[in-house]
Amino acid sequence: MSQDTNIDIENTNKSFDQIKSLKLINFRSHSDFSLSLSGKPLAIIGDNGAGKTNILEAISLLSPGRGMRNSKFSEMVKDNNSMPWGVNFDILSNGKNYEVSSGLRDNQKGRDIKINSKKVSGSSTLPEIILLSWLTPSMDQIFNETPSYRRRFIDRLCAVYEKNHTKNIKIYEKLMAERNSSFKNKTLDNVWLDALEDQMSHASIDIAETRLAFISNLNKVLETNLDPVWPKAHLEIIGFVENLVSSWNSTKAKEMLRNELKNNRERDLFSKRTNEGVHRSDLLVNEKNKKMEAKNCSTGEQKSLLMGIILSHLELISSLKCRYPILLLDEVLAHFDEIRRKSFFKQIQKIGSQIIMTGTDISVFEELEDIEIYHLNNKKITDIR
User: 361: how many CB neighbours lie within 10 A of its CB?
Assistant: First the structure.
């Protein structure tokens, strides 16, 4: 999916991705935790430190990567003991039932994933079963963080938009690591580098094309479908490879990137790293009405800009894929005023996504009529509405 797409938000022939039940074993603070879900909006209420975020983190492992905290898998073990963690889910997707499980490998250097009891190679298969998006307090500073932080953010959104995006990034990172290793070890083989850089160029152009197409389509939704109570964001991805893709066709862009990598070998040998590529791109976000970079907006405006991006992402994906991603919100809604909370609930009801939220104040969620509310205390969960 490397080009702009016609967006039909009102398409009614959509299917729901839904988590029907979950079970956590030896995961973070939970030694044995189970919960059944109806598909309605769900709020988990509890004191700070009760383990609410740990539940959302476990759910976020249904997406490629290391979840919403981006932690090492070995750090997810309860109390750092020697017993491996495991998470299990019953999922309804496209009218079919799936059992998805994941757990720490014996060597504690990765995780295994099973779908219907069959082990799959890597996590890139997961978006074919279920689509996820999330927003956490740690993401509030994204506009003031490093380019690598913003790249991870936009690439996670792109991974829901284009199923091969995560795989392409992994391929690129592996190739770049091999290239960098040759510079560090000073074992240069120009024929070998020619072949490797050709592969890097192919992966790079695919990554850049997906980023550009996704952002173009997301900006359309931000422009036309977002409630005016949210500040209007405009996104742009800036980088050498993205500039090539914007200026030339794929074949020419790949050729020019190969030449750039080849011409940069001497400089890269000196610095012992690859200095140009999609790993150096950055996400630029502007508040369109004020014509101001998001990093210069107030903290409240930054939170609202980010929420607007997440809501528009849900609408975009539901319209293009005819599927509703599941949304995880960790301690987020309490930061918005009543007007924006009402707008958020209205938007969620319109989109139809399953949404799982956490918070400490039950009153934040009582504005939404058709909602399940659970209380988490001492690792035990109780239905209170």
Answer: 11
